[in-house]
Amino acid sequence: MSETDVTSWINLDWSSWHSLNPESGDLASLSTDEGLYRVSHPDHDGLVYIGETGRSLRGRIRALARGTFADQMPYRDPHTAAPCLWAIRDRDSSTLEVSWTAPSLAANIQARKAIEAALIAVHRRDHGRSPTANFARIIPGYKQSSYRKNGLVGGRLTDDGIEPNADPGIGPLDWNQFTNLTADDWMGVKWSEPTPLAEASKQIPKVSGVYRLWKSGHSQPLEYIGESKNLRNRLYRHRRTRDKNLLYSFASLSRLDAKHKREEVETDLLGAHWLACEAAPTDQF
User: Fold this and answer.
1) Over the stretch 193-217, which tens digit does the pLDDT of each residue have?
2) 265 near 190, Cβ under 8 Å?
3) Can you tell me the distance from the alpha carbon of 40 to that of 49, in angstroms, rounded to the nearest whole number?
4) Which end of the chain is more exposed for a tag (fewer CB within 10 A), N or C?
5) Which of 72, 70, 83 lies closest to 137 in space, CA to CA?
C-alpha cells in the first residue's frame, strides 16, 4: 500500500475513501470543518489532487465534484482543479475517490496551507512527480478551461494543438539536507551567499528562480520563501517593503521556465520547512 493511501499519512487522521461522484451519496458524510483532502484514481500511481479549504470541506469538495462530473469541462472557478479531474474522468473512467482530514491546526491558515505544501512535497518525493491536477495542470490531449469571466470552455483537443499547462513538471528536490533551512545546500539547491536585504543590488541576475528571507541569527523558521521569473526585480521590491536587515539568499534554476515548475520547487521548500520545524515561514500565506 502506498503511503498516500494510509489513514495516518504524515501523522494526520484521514477518513476512509469515498466516491467523488455526487450521485453516490458518499459526500453527505463530509465534515463541515476546515481541512485538507486528497483525490485518487485507481489507474494513476499516487494521487491526482491534494487541496485545502478554510471554509467547509463539504462545500469545497462538493464544488469540485460538481465540476468534475459535469457534462462539459467546467471553468477553473469555483474550483481550479475541476477541469483536470474532468479530463481524467473523461479519459480514464469516473472512478475517482476522495479522503479528507480536519485536524485542529487547520483552523489556522498558515498551518493549513503549510501542511498542504508538505503533503504535495512528500507526494513529489515519494512518487517522483506532483499530483496530476495540482498547479493548474491539465493532462495531454485536453485544452484547459479559463476562468468564467473569460468564457473559454476547454475539452478534448481535436488536432495536434499544444496546451502549455500539460507540459511535464520537474522532479522533486534532494531531501538529504532538508532540516537546515539556511544551509547553502538546503534541499540540494545551490543557494547564493546570505546578504542583507538592504544590499540587494544589480548583481542579482534577471533570471527565474527561488529565494528565501530570514532574520540574522535565526536559523528557523524562515521569514518567507518565494519564486519569481525575475529574481532581481522581486528582491528589489522586497528591499522596499520589508525589513532591510533581513538576509536573503536565492537560487537560479534554468529548468524553471514556467510558473507551475517554479511553484513545484517553491512547494517542495515550503513542505520541507513545515516538516523541519512544524511551522510555516513567519510571513507566508
Assistant:
1) 999 999 998 889 999 999 999 999 8
2) no
3) 7
4) N
5) 83
DSSP structure string for 37-57: EEEE-TTSSS-SEEEEESS-H
C-alpha cell at 94: 469516473
C-alpha grid cell, residue 104 = 485542529
pLDDT digits (tens, 9 = 90+) for 17-39: 999 999 999 999 899 999 999 99
C-alpha distances out from residue 212 to 50, 107, 168, 195, 262, Å: 24, 26, 25, 11, 14
pLDDT of residue 266: 98
Cα 64–Cα 117–Cα 119 angle in degrees, nearest 5: 80
Classify residue 285: in a domain, yes or no.
no
- The CATH number linked to 116 is 3.40.1440.10
Q: Which three cell numbers stand for residue 129?
A: 512527480
Are 36 and 116 a contacting pair, CB within 8 Å?
A: yes
At residue 155, does pLDDT exceed 50? Answer: yes
Rg (CA), the chain: 20
Confidence band of 1 (pLDDT split at 50, 70, 90)? very low
* Domain-terminating residue out of 148, 166, 184: 166
Same domain, 131 and 179: no
Q: What CATH number does residue 252 fall under?
A: 3.40.1440
Domain carrying residue 143: 3-166
Last residue of a domain, one of 166, 191, 218: 166
Stated pTM of the model: 0.95
